[in-house]
Amino acid sequence: MAVESLIGFRLSERLEVFFQIFRGNKVSPIIDKLDNHAVSALQNFIWEKTVEFGIICRGKKFDRKEITRKMTPTANYQRQQGCNERAYYCKGTYCIQINPNCARKKIKEHVDIMAETMQEYFRIAKQREIV
Questions:
Q1: What is the residue-wise DSSP string for 37-63?
Q2: How far is Cα 75 from Cα 125, in angstroms, rounded to an integer?
Q3: What are the CA-CA distances from residue 114 to residues 31, 42, 66, 121 (Å)?
């Protein structure tokens, strides 16, 4: 992960993310404590770690769709929110600047899904150790 993408997202906050995940908790409440730039960094951080753990757990069988299929598709989310922006804006960091409440709501859903997915990967890895 590039250092620039973590600017504004402190080490203590990254540790808090893992603490919450390992305890089986949601990580979305952390978003309420962060500025917009750090929210984007948090989302990127959790995405990269979820993929990393997915590859470790599933190996060549890992498919990113294991994560994304649980998320509300962008077009559906925008329709639910009454948003007329291009889908690209909703997926990128643009929306967090122009409509932070809406973007934070979507990001909260995504980070909680990613945290749940990581928790599942940990359960699978733990079962493999026991067997």
A1: HHHHHHHHHHHHHHHHHHHHHHGGG--
A2: 34
A3: 14, 11, 10, 10
Amino acid at 53: F
* Tens digit of pLDDT at every position of the chain (131 positions): 444 455 667 899 999 999 999 999 999 999 999 999 899 999 999 999 999 999 999 888 999 999 999 999 999 999 999 999 888 888 777 889 889 999 999 999 999 999 999 999 999 888 877 54
Question: Whole-prediction pTM value?
Answer: 0.88
Contact 75, 87 (CB under 8 A): yes
Residue 70, judged by CB atoms within 10 A of its CB (0-12, 13-18, 19+), counts as middle
